From TrEMBL:
Top-level taxonomy: Eukaryota, Metazoa, Chordata, Craniata, Vertebrata
Protein's recorded name: RNA-binding protein 43 isoform X2
Coiled coil region boundaries: none
UniProt keyword S-adenosyl-L-methionine present: no
Organism: Alligator sinensis
Keywords, alphabetical: RNA-binding
GO molecular function list: RNA binding
């Protein structure tokens, strides 16, 4: 069975960037099936498709022939096209692994731009500039869901900051009344795109770093990179689901401004390095109380053997984050211990 599972994993790809919520799931699954069977996409016979999955915008495609899988991966760029779709959607296709950081999602509050531009036009502009992102329909309150790779989310942040600065300068030139000048100043210091907790906030003398939350937790708890005192920089974090914003400020006004920029660059460089190296394994806890205790107990035992692995427990699952080899070793140890615990009663586990 192990050989069969290994063979299947070598014939399976993970697909991200699938537009969510615009069509029924069965229709989208059909579109994906057609896409990966087409010769122009270097596809072939599909053994099975898993969609939707626990991650929005992600599907698993298993081909009958491993050679087809290799050809699909070699194609490079995949564009999801169908007359039932409003536009073309770029897809990210990679060899299947439960340990891959595939995509993240967040909710933007664009209402701050409402009195400066037409929000529908702003969304269309963002869609045109960042085609790798998927946008949900704009809500009446100005909120919109966005999904894509972490680098694409970073690009979105940069686009929104440029737009905010552009609108702020235009607004400042156009208004001359004192109250209007006050509003212009507010725009300069506080035009924001929020996702519950200030998704982006642009202020003088402050630097922001947009981070994948898992990467940030790894930096903070494993690498202890949250200590910026040596660079005369203080920080505060705002976490909203899969995105964390790190706000950096100088300890005092007389501090060297270049230290702030150096601290920002160091964190960004480390984040980019970790995002390409780290892998995540999720152990779901939607089981009986005994099984939940079993997994939690096994996780604590294994964690002591892997100092460079971050374990984040939640009510419904446990996330394990680290290098590919460490996460794989951790998962194997977990399977061994869980198998051992299955033979024990809850009382025996507590005594042990």
């Amino acid at each position: 069975m192990a050989a069969g599972e290994a063979s299947k994993s070598e014939r399976t790809v993970i697909v991200s960037g699938i537009p969510d919520g615009i069509l029924k799931d069965e229709v989208m699954a059909d579109i994906l099936m057609i896409h990966f069977q087409r010769a122009k996409n270097r596809g072939g016979d599909v053994e099975g498709i898993v969609y939707p999955t626990t991650t929005k915008g992600v599907a698993y495609i298993t081909f009958e022939d491993q050679k087809v899988t290799e050809n699909v991966l070699k194609k490079g760029e995949h564009q999801l096209e169908d007359k039932r779709l409003p536009r073309h959607y770029p897809l990210k296709v990679s060899l299947y692994s439960e340990d891959v950081f595939s995509c993240i999602s967040c909710v933007l509050d664009l209402s701050g731009f409402g009195d400066k531009c037409v929000l529908e036009d702003l969304v269309q502009e963002l869609q045109k500039n960042i085609t790798a992102l998927s946008f949900s329909p704009l809500q009446p309150n100005g909120q919109i869901s966005v999904q894509g790779s972490f680098p694409s989310i970073q690009s979105l942040k940069d686009n929104l900051l440029l737009k905010a600065n552009s609108l702020s300068k235009t607004d400042k030139k156009a208004k001359c009344m004192s109250s209007q000048r006050s509003n212009s100043k507010t725009q300069k210091h506080g035009v924001s795109v929020e996702s519950k907790n200030n998704f982006i906030h642009n202020a003088d003398g402050e630097k922001q770093v947009v981070l994948d939350t898992d990467v940030y937790y790894y930096m903070k708890h494993i690498l202890h990179e949250d200590s910026l005192a040596k660079k005369s920089v203080v920080s505060r974090e705002v976490t909203d689901g899969e995105i964390t914003i790190l706000y950096l400020e100088r300890v005092n006004a007389s501090s060297d401004p270049s230290k702030l920029e150096k601290a920002k660059k160091k964190i960004e460089d480390l984040s980019a390095e970790l995002h390409s190296k780290l892998r995540k394994k999720r152990f779901h806890l939607d089981r009986s109380k005994h099984e939940m205790q079993m997994y939690q107990h096994a996780c604590k035992r294994v964690q002591s053997q892997y100092s460079q692995v971050l374990v984040i427990p939640y009510e419904t699952h446990i996330d394990v984050i680290g290098s590919s080899s460490d996460v794989f070793g951790f998962a194997q140890e977990m399977k061994t211990k869980v198998k051992h615990y299955l033979q024990k009663t809850p009382q025996e586990m507590i005594v042990r």
